[in-house]
Description:
With 303 residues, this protein is of the alpha+beta class. It has 14 helices and 6 strands. The longest helix has 18 residues, at 180-197.
Amino acid sequence: xxxxxxxxxxxxxxxxxxxxxxxxxxxxxxxxxxxxxxxxxxxxxxxxxxxxxxxxxxxxxxxxxxxxxxxxxxxxxxxxxxxxxxxxxxxxxxxxxxxxxxxxxxxxxxxxxxxxxxxxxxxxxxxxxxxxxxxxxxxxxxxxxxxxxxxxxxxxxxxxxxxxxxxxxxxxxxxxxxxxxxxxxxxxxxxxxxxxxxxxxxxxxxxxxxxxxxxxxxxxxxxxxxxxxxxxxxxxxxxxxxxxxxxxxxxxxxxxxxxxxxxxxxxxxxxxxxxxxxxxxxxxxxxxxxxxxxxxxxxxxxx
Length: 303
């Protein structure tokens, strides 16, 4: 099972290369496979080295994390050989850059404080469900619909509310999302991409370590090392309180914040989906809030 942490910058680079190599079939890169059973899933190391125009010894050193300063030409050759897309190619470059400057001291986790004006934005977006999450998908601030949309999430303490944790560990998540399998693949790809360039960051290692232990589904997807996930503009929810609703989703980085993102869902006025969204906002059990509220502040009724 893959570890949530890395022993060095080259280790993460090697893990990514190995994952892509073992998931690339010979026929995908123009190789003809002879009869008989192949003991290696995907490409063999020597096959990839040949395709990329490098020695097998050099490639093995890279995959084992012992070669931490590959040239841009080497990275580009590997990207071409593995048919990486633009996002995967960029991730490979970022891993190599990090390997070259690896420092053993983990960086401090980013601040979880949400600025007051952003909380006003969340309230102004009602009845559209909206929330702010951290880079590791902790729910930092929300309006009533933004929390209630994820059925059952309000039952967890505010400090435990994390969308990745919810997707994999909350019993309601699999029934809430009809495309749960695709949703979690994208979730893990996002965390994998982030952890690849900051594998020792405490906020990421704690979350990933927990999910590796508690969710076999997460562990399996983590091992694949996908860093690109499909994002759908529309998302359907089978909500236990308001029924089936399909909403258009949008997320965006918030300027001047430590990696915080705003997520908001909308529906066309006058449609059943919009009516369900209005109902969700009206029946939400918890008021607009945020993670740094004191318990007594979170218990007052919604205005």
